[in-house]
Design a protein that fits this description.
There is one protein chain. By secondary structure, the chain is α/β, with parallel strands linked by helices. It has a single domain (9-31, 77-278), classed as Aromatic compound dioxygenase (Protocatechuate 3,4-Dioxygenase, subunit A). It has helices at residues 9-23, 34-54, 59-74, 78-85, 87-95, 205-213; strands spanning 116-117, 120-122, 133-142, 152-157, 177-181, 187-193, 198-199, 218-219, 223-228, 235-241, 260-261, 264-266, 269-273, 276-278. The strands form three sheets. Strands 1-5-4-9-10-11 form a six-stranded mixed β-sheet, with no helix packed on it. Strands 2, 3, 6, 12, 13 and 14 form a six-stranded mixed β-sheet that branches. A hairpin with a 6-residue loop joins strand 9 and strand 10. The chain is globular. The relative contact order is 0.19. The structure holds 3,4-dihydroxybenzoic acid and fe (iii) ion. One of its GO terms (molecular function) is catechol 1,2-dioxygenase activity. Keywords: Dioxygenase, Iron, Metal-binding, Oxidoreductase. Residues 8-17 have a biased composition (Low complexity).
Length: 281
């Protein structure tokens, strides 16, 4: 495990904001009634006011908070901050009505429209890509147990240094990303490398807050996945690794016991099988 990397916010924060904007041309146009805006926003503000009263927050602390909020925006770190500290609760709400494979947070580093790959494939990677080889295989089925041929397993992950392509310099576009299409039995077999624990960038405002609070900035190693098939509800999830560092103290609170893989060594490589189950849309 690499615990010595030094990720920089300068690259990842701003690019995460750009990626979010690019993926949501309609952001801000959601149809929400005044009643709902009022009740949700009033509850958020009441929570903040209650914390200020309970902890007797002072003027210097209030002004420091204002400064920090400005820096989060200027550094483009709203996607990072929100996805680490807030998204898991929204995901829990979504999970309450979802059958099949458990979901997890999307996080800030998804990029759409990656290379489409056949069912048995190797993720795009550099010729000398460092890391422990991993074969990740399985089947996509519906909740009635029928295999879903032509389903899309949209996968992305970090490299052995902890970086995501598109969000750090010097990594080729599309590295360790791809949309794998299942065969006529709904199966896939993806050769990749083992992802490593992810550290929130330490040099930006989110990292500064974590340091100021004495928390740790780590997520356990994970694969990100969107799994979809026509007529079925898309699953957004992540898969983790048994025994991995930070599995029990994920800064993003996004692990679930059902989402932990336990690869075994076979022919000098790690291999693991995991099946996905999609519910009808
Ligand atoms: C963040 C990064 C991730 O890779 C992830 O899976 C979730 C959150 C973040 O920096 O906010
Ligand atoms: Fe991630």
């Amino acid at each position: 495990m690499t615990s010595t990397q030094n990720p920089t916010a300068a690259g990842s924060g701003a690019s995460a904001t750009e990626a979010f904007r690019a993926s949501r041309p309609q952001a801000g146009a959601a149809e929400v009634s005044a009643e709902r805006v009022s009740s949700v926003v009033a509850a958020v503000l009441d929570g903040v006011r209650a914390a200020i009263r309970e902890h007797n927050v002072t003027y210097p602390e209030y002004q420091a908070a204002k400064q920090w909020l400005i820096e989060i925006g200027e550094g483009g770190e709203w996607p990072l901050f929100l996805d680490v500290f807030i998204e898991h609760v929204v995901e829990q709400n979504a999970a309450a009505t979802q059958e099949g494979t458990k979901g997890s947070i999307l996080g800030p580093y998804y990029l759409p429209d990656q290379q489409r790959l056949p069912a048995v494939t190797t993720l795009p990677m550099r010729p000398d890509e460092p890391g422990v080889p991993l074969v990740f295989a399985g089947q996509v089925r519906d909740t009635a147990g029928r295999p879903l041929a032509g389903a899309e397993v949209d996968i992305w992950q970090n490299d052995a240094a902890g970086y995501y392509s598109g969000f750090a310099p010097d990594i080729p576009a599309g590295n360790l990303r791809g949309v794998v299409v299942t065969d006529d039995q709904g199966r896939f077999e993806i050769t990749t490398i083992q992802p490593v624990p992810y550290q929130i960038p330490t040099d930006g405002p989110t990292g500064k807050l974590i340091e100021a609070a004495g928390w740790h900035p780590w997520r356990p190693a994970h694969l990100h996945l969107l799994v979809r098939a026509p007529g079925h509800r898309q699953i957004t999830t992540q898969l983790y690794f048994a025994g991995g560092e930070w599995l029990d103290s994920d800064v993003a609170t996004a692990t679930k016991p059902e989402l932990v893989l336990d690869p075994v060594e076979r022919d000098g490589r790690l291999r693991v099988d995991y099946d996905f189950v999609l519910e009808p849309a």
